[in-house]
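User: Please work through this fold.
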Amino acid sequence: MQLTYPAYPYVPGRTPRHPEGQFDAIRATARQGASPAELAATPAWAAGLAYLEDGFYWEAHEVLEPIWLALPRGSREREMVQALIQLANACLKREMGRPRAVLRLCRIVAGHLDHLGQGPVMGQPLEDLRDAIHALENQIRRDSPDRH
């Protein structure tokens, strides 16, 4: 399945929402009962990471959610996906001009990452995510010092 991008990133209050069902085919690749390794090889996982990297934050959340739901409760992999979803949400809140929400979500993501400890999870280096959170927090503090 080749990854396609929507014409624009959805930002609530700024851009129109995508048509209902636009991401259903990608989401359906995250099957219940699949192992973490199988889920990490799905188009949903690849799309979620690509969307997050390329500024399609709402879309990343949309396609990562079924992976999170398919992973075993209490697993490192599920917590990792939760951290990625919250990171996407923090980035979306930045686009929406909500600095306090960004900082709150960054703290949540940092908590997940602290709980995960060291080493990659689902092929993702945790240190890269820590760096992303610190960069986002620093940007918010620099750009809106009086709004948080």
In short: The mean pLDDT is 95.
